[in-house]
Design a protein that fits this description.
Elements: H1 2-14, H2 16-19, H3 21-33, H4 41-52, H5 56-68, H6 73-89, H7 93-103, H8 111-124, H9 128-140, H10 147-163
């Protein structure tokens, strides 16, 4: 059931633009209900459906439940990123930063996503120079040219932000 269940979830997300928010929520909730109550994938996907629909207050509880139930691996990283984004939108950028920092070395190929969401949270926390620094440092790593220069400017922004 695991592979088939995930395939069906992925199909809902692939068609999300055509389905609309309400239908995505309905279908994800139906799939989540097919899992045992202690399976963290159900609340994780239900939270994502609500978050995608702009229902952050509802999404927060689902994400927290998924994490409490022991969501692991990449899904845990995704849940922490999504929860951080949600609490930032709800006006709690400091908490968003704490959640993103909790990911640490587990970010894997989502490290740049963590950086992007950290930058948004830093802006909301009143640190736009720190946000620009983090975003530029992440970008510099992908450049074929000007990598050293951009990284140095990013460090300068970070140092300026730290001394402010």
């Amino acid at each position: 059931m695991t592979n088939d269940w995930q395939r069906r979830v992925d199909a809902v997300w692939a068609a999300a633009d055509e389905l609309g928010d309400a239908e995505v929520i309905r279908r994800i909730d139906e799939l989540a209900a097919a899992l045992p109550g202690d399976d963290p994938r159900g609340p994780f996907e239900a939270g994502g459906a609500r978050d995608s629909a702009g229902l952050e207050v509802e999404a927060e509880g689902y994400y927290r439940r998924a994490l409490e139930l022991g969501l692991a691996g990449r899904a845990r990283t995704e849940a922490l990123i999504q929860l951080a984004s949600t609490v930032r939108v709800l006006g709690r950028p400091g908490e968003a930063l704490e959640l993103l920092d909790a990911i640490g070395a587990d970010a894997g190929d989502l490290a740049d996503a963590v950086t992007g969401f950290r930058a948004l949270a830093l802006i909301d926390a009143g640190d736009p120079r720190g946000a620009a620094s983090e975003a530029l440092e992440a970008l510099a790593a992908h450049l074929p040219q000007y990598r050293r220069s951009l990284a140095a400017y990013a460090r300068g922004l970070r140092d300026d932000a730290a001394s402010a």
